[in-house]
């Protein structure tokens, strides 16, 4: 009787799990559609996606629930967590992705593309030790080298930080970015972004903007899923006054949105006063000048 009861309870738990997550595929499809077709600002889309994910996928990524999923639903759960991890690059979504990947790997089903996705998520979340461990566990999968990162002794956790590199072969240096008293400009750009390159060329060719940005601007890049070391080194050699370095953790830059490049943030005493997004064909000089005036430049 005891064995019968144990089997019956186990069967009920399994059936409950399957019933609870029978909509994984349809919910994943709805989330992807929300991502692709959302009509509104990017930050509003992010809020909507987070809310949907929190409601529909709560409890899916526990070890027990993942074990109860079919292979198809398990891969769908992995792909859904990947969407959020790649899009938001926050630890909670990377953790869900890791848990789904761990179950896939435990079943010996991991495909090279899934290993590469997990690796990229670790790089984006700056979980370098986890990325190295993954590379050791899957030596036959082609993965980029994990960057060597050295923290400066004065690094303060939870405050804005970037990763700086000066020459090939050297480690990346993790250091804080001071939010100064007085006016400051934070530029979010990227060496491989066409519009960022256009904005930099225009600023460097403009006597007023070039002088102001050289004195007051800090140029940073989003936390890519790949380090693109050569791109940063090449860019910074050619543009020493507009050198760009990737941020460490975006969550530590509470006033900055890294989803669009280039975007210019104008601060006074560390407080955001104005922002200017994009660099159209005709430029954005007047908007930038107006924002500069708002912070006393």
Distance between the termini: 82 Å
Number of helices: 12
Structural class: alpha/beta
Can you list the strand order of the major beta sheet?
A: 6-5-4-7-8
How many DSSP E strands?
A: 8
- CATH topology of the largest domain, by name, is Glutaredoxin
Which percent range fits the helix content? 40-55%
CATH homologous superfamily assignment of the largest domain? Glutaredoxin
What is the arithmetic mean of pLDDT? 89
CATH architecture type of the largest domain = 3-Layer(aba) Sandwich
Low-confidence stretches: 1-21
Shape: globular
Strand content: 5-15%
The succession of helices and strands, N to C, reads HHHHHHHHEEEEHHEHEEEH
Explain what the structure shows.
With 297 residues, the chain is α/β, with parallel strands linked by helices. It folds into two domains: 2-137; 150-294, 3-Layer(aba) Sandwich (Glutaredoxin). 52% of the residues lie in helices and 13% in strands. It has helices spanning 2-20, 24-37, 42-56, 63-68, 71-88, 91-106, 112-124, 128-137, 194-205, 207-216, 229-238, 285-294; strands at residues 149-151, 161-164, 172-176, 183-188, 217-221, 244-246, 263-268, 271-277. The chain has a five-stranded mixed β-sheet. It has a three-stranded mixed β-sheet with strand order 1-3-2, with no helix packed on it. Strand 2 (161-164) and strand 3 form a beta hairpin. The longest helix has 19 residues, at 2-20. Residues 1-21 have low confidence and may be disordered.
């Amino acid at each position: 009787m005891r064995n019968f009861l144990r089997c019956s309870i186990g069967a009920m738990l399994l059936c409950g799990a399957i019933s609870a997550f029978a909509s994984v595929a349809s919910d994943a499809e709805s989330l992807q559609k929300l991502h692709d077709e959302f009509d509104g600002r990017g930050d509003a889309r992010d809020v909507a996606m987070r809310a949907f994910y929190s409601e529909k996928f709560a409890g899916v990524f526990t070890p027990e629930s993942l074990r109860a999923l079919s292979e198809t639903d398990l891969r769908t759960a992995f792909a859904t967590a990947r969407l959020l991890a790649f899009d938001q690059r926050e630890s909670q979504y990377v953790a869900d992705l890791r848990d789904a990947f761990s179950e896939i790997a435990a079943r010996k089903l991991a495909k090279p593309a899934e290993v590469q996705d997990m690796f990229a998520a670790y790089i984006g979340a700056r979980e370098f030790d986890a990325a190295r461990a993954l590379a050791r566990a899957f030596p036959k999968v082609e993965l980029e080298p994990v960057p060597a990162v050295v923290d400066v002794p004065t690094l303060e956790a939870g405050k804005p930080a970037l990763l700086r590199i000066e020459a090939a072969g050297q480690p990346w240096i993790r250091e804080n970015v001071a939010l100064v008293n007085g006016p400051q400009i934070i530029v979010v750009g990227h060496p491989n972004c066409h519009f960022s390159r256009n904005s930099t060329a225009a600023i460097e060719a403009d006597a007023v903007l070039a002088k102001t940005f050289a004195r007051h601007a800090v140029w940073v890049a989003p936390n890519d899923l790949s380090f693109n070391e050569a791109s940063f080194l090449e860019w910074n050699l050619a543009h020493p006054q507009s050198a760009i370095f990737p941020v460490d953790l975006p969550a530590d830059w509470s006033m900055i949105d890294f989803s669009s490049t280039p975007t210019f943030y104008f601060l006074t005493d560390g407080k955001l006063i104005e922002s200017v997004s994009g660099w159209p064909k005709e430029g954005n000089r007047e908007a930038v000048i107006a924002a500069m005036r708002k912070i006393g430049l």
